[in-house]
Amino acid sequence: xxxxxxxxxxxxxxxxxxxxxxxxxxxxxxxxxxxxxxxxxxxxxxxxxxxxxxxxxxxxxxxxxxxxxxxxxxxxxxxxxxxxxxxxxxxxxxxxxxxxxxxxxxxxxxxxxxxxxxxxxxxxxxxxxxxxxxxxxxxxxxxxxxxxxxxxxxxxxxxxxxxxxxxxxxxxxxxxxxxxxxxxxxxxxxxxxxxxxxxxxxxxxxxxxxxxxxxxxxxxxxxxxxxxxxxxxxxxxxxxxxxxxxxxxxxxxxxxxxxxxxxxxxxxxxxxxxxxxxxxxxxxxxxxxxxxxxxxxxxxxxxxxxxxxxxxxxxxxxxxxxxxxxxxxxxxxxxxxxxxxxxxxxxxxxxxxxxxxxxxxxxxxxxxxxxxxxxxxxxxxxxxxxxxxxxxxxxxxxxxxxxxxxxxxxxxxxxxxxxxxxxxxxx
Length: 427
Hints:
Keywords: Cytoplasm, Disulfide bond, Immunoglobulin domain, Nucleus, Phosphoprotein, Repeat
Distance between the termini: 35 Å
Domain Ig-like: 45-132
Subcellular location: Cytoplasm; Nucleus
Main location: cytoplasm
Number of helices: 5
Organism: Fundulus heteroclitus (Killifish)
Largest sheet: 5 strands, mixed
C-alpha cells in the first residue's frame, strides 16, 4: 500500500485540493460523484467575502452580504447590536451560495453594529461592520441652522440670530419655483431660553446664515399681531435646489457598465457627492463622475458581483439612493455541469449526499425536490466549495425518497434518492 502524503495548504486552497482529489479518483477508477458517506475534507469556517459597512437614509433598506466556506457546512447567523436576527417581513435573509441580509424600513435606533458569525464543530469565524443611519430632515432641522452671530454685526446678547429680510413681490409663476417664508418685522429677537441653554443649542447647531434679525412666534401670537398695523408683512424668497428626477435601481450583467443618473432643478451645481455604503466614491479607472447641465452621472465600469451595493447621491441636505444588482451573463450562458450526479441509495436515518461539479467557480445554483425549490435548513444542507456543489439530506426517512434536481445556468440534472426501510430486527 502506498502511504498518502499529507500536504498542508492554506485554508483558501482546500476546496481546490478536494476537486483535484476527485479528478484523480475519477481517472484511477475510484469512487466519485455522489456518495452516501462524509468524505469531504473537514474545514473550519472562513468568511471569504466580508460584509461592508453601510450608511443609509432613515426609511431606506440596508443591505449586507458575505460568503462562507467550511465543512461540515457552517451555520450562519446575523446579529444587530448583539441581538440575533430572525427572518421576518422587516429582516430578509436569503442564500444562493452567498448569504444576504436586508433590513427594510430602517429606523434611527437600528444604528450600531451588524455582526455575522459562521460556526461548525471545528470552530467559528465572525466579522463586524458599522451601520449608520442618516436621519431625514424636517422643519425643525431648518430652524436649527442658525449660527452664532459675528462680533460687530449684531449685539452680543445671548439667543439672537442674524437674518436679512428682503421685501419682494411674488407672482403666480414664481410660486412654482420658489420657497416662500413669511416673516414679521421686528426690532430685535430675544431667545427666551436661559443663557446656559442658548449656548448649548448654539454649540450643537452651528450653521452659517444671512445677516439680519429673525423672529420665531407662535400661531396665536401671529393672529393677534395681524390686528396691529405696525407689523408689516414681508416676504423672504430664495430659489431652492431640488431633485427633479431621482436615482433608479439598476440590473446589469457582468463586464457591462452601470450608469446612475439624476436631474436637479438647477444647472452646474457643485459640491455633490457619490457614496457607496457610506463611503465617498472618488473618480478612478473604475468610477467615472460627470455633470452636464442639470444631469449628474456616476458610471461604474466593467461591473462584477463585488460592485453590488447601495449607491447614494448627496448634495448638502438633499440625498437619494438606489441599488445595483450584477447578474451573471456570458458566464451563465457558458455554465455547464462537468461531473453529473449519480443515483443515491441509503438506509433511513443516514445522510444522503448528492454532488455536482460545474465549469465555473462560486456560481449560484438551485436544488429541487420533485420540482420544488429547496432552502437551506436543518434538514437540507447546501454546500458550495469552488466548482463543487453538494446537497445533504440529514436523518433520511422514506418521505425523502424523491427525484432531486440540480440547476445551474442552463443545465439541469436530476437523480432519484432511495431510502431503505430498516426492520426492527436490523435496528
